[in-house]
UniProtKB/TrEMBL annotation:
Residue ranges occupied by any SnoaL-like domain in the UniProt entry: 19-133
Lineage: Bacteria, Pseudomonadati, Pseudomonadota, Gammaproteobacteria, Alteromonadales
InterPro entries, per the entry: NTF2-like_dom_sf, SnoaL-like
Species per Swiss-Prot/TrEMBL record: Salinimonas profundi
Name of the protein in its database record: Nuclear transport factor 2 family protein
Pfam families: SnoaL_3
Length: 149
């Protein structure tokens, strides 16, 4: 029983390392405008949710958005600062939250879900947000409300 628990612990640690590598590769390929690598890290039915309320993209729609950006050689750069990964008991699904830094937006947060397919972890959902400090939340949300009206 102890050996089995140790094996499970090592398997989860290995999964977390693999997931960490996938997320690091995601950010590296985006920063280097490497569209092929970037999109190879997503599951075929993945969804990307951006910072704007209108940005809920299928993988094909997200590729269409990203293609001109990546073709220009620019990409986008988000540097991971802190990350927490949880792997399900079945070791087939995982979710994460990561704090990121962007020169353009400052502190941002990425959250998402990965699924294991054919022994590889793939991003099924990625959600990029801009965390709003509570001290200015009412000011920000009042501007959003005014814009929506």
């Amino acid at each position: 029983m102890v050996l089995l628990l140790l094996q499970i612990g090592y398997a989860y640690a290995d999964d977390k390392t693999q997931i960490d590598n996938v997320l690091n590769e995601l950010h590296d390929s985006a920063a280097n405008a490497d569209m092929n690598t970037y999109f190879s890290l997503y599951a075929d039915d993945a969804v990307f949710i951006g910072t704007d309320a209108s940005e809920i993209w299928s993988l094909d729609a997200f590729k269409a958005y990203a293609e001109p950006v990546f073709s220009s050689g620019k990409g986008w750069t988000y540097m991971p600062a802190k990350r927490h990964i949880t792997v399900s008991d079945s070791a087939q699904t995982a979710w994460f939250v990561e704090m990121l830094h962007s020169e353009t937006y400052g502190t941002t947060r990425g959250t998402g879900v990965l699924v294991k397919s054919d022994g590889r972890w793939k991003i099924a959902q990625y959600h990029l947000t801009i965390p709003i400090p509570n001290a200015i939340a009412k000011d920000v949300t009042s501007k959003i409300k005014a814009m929506e009206n």
